[in-house]
């Protein structure tokens, strides 16, 4: 990879990362290959600073451990600087329009990452900013997480195409980005959710269209065992995402049969990988035995947030 983030004639300079549907299979593969290469460089102690003098703003409207730390550390390692901007501490939190915020920030920064509730906020920010905007999680999508997830599966399985990835639980932002990202890479993505908590129909349709192009497959079901059957990857996420905390009790009841536990994973391939974006609630969406068991790669996955996002930042901003 060159300092400008180019390889095999692929240039992503100046692009936004709102959701993976805007990226081709080849572009996603390029980002994954770059992430693996940047991970190798970092493990070897090679200094690689193509973002020297560049600054990324990090707007957070919700809590974060992994996203904040991996973006801040990633920018530092690439020679740049990251600016943590809690929504409550900037004028956006007092009603300054997102369009003005975008234009002002474009005069100072080289890129903006935003974690927000409404997906429209990400789209609006990107529309009015003249610099790349990266979605660090919205209620609809979490593409940076899925880049790290795909990297993790690729590292452990040596391929993505043809693998079955089962997502068991809430049809939320993670389910959406896994549907899109998995379909782009020719995977069979199976989502099992209870009635009332199914993934967005538009996203399902889009992922089916993508899968038809890539040789992937989409299964949407209410049956966790059907989804988990012969799966190479079993993925789950919290039952109550950020912003839905007051629904915790009713969601615990609705998701009671959707726990990923020792019984459910018997349906998967013996060498299945367990993934979870974290934070996790042991004893709710996943049993302790599964998340802390031999098939779990959750900490590789968390680490790969750093490498995948470094690859993304170099590609968009160098
Ligand atoms: N997985 C993830 O995005 O974690 P944080 O909420 O800690 O950033
Ligand atoms: N679905 C979770 C993901 C957290 C990384 C949430 O939105 O809270």
Q: Could you characterize what this model shows?
A:
The chain has 318 residues and is of the alpha/beta class. The protein has two domains: 6-141 and 305-317, Rossmann fold (3-Layer(aba) Sandwich), CATH 3.40.50; 144-301, Rossmann fold (3-Layer(aba) Sandwich), CATH 3.40.50. The chain has helices at residues 25-43, 66-77, 98-108, 119-128, 143-157, 173-184, 201-214, 224-228, 248-254, 262-265, 288-291, 298-317, and strands at 55-60, 81-86, 111-115, 133-135, 164-168, 188-192, 217-221, 233-236, 273-276. The strands form two sheets. The protein has a five-stranded parallel beta sheet with strand order 7-6-5-8-9. Helix 7 links the parallel strand 6 and strand 7. The longest helix has 20 residues, at 298-317. Mean pLDDT is 97; it is low at 1-6.
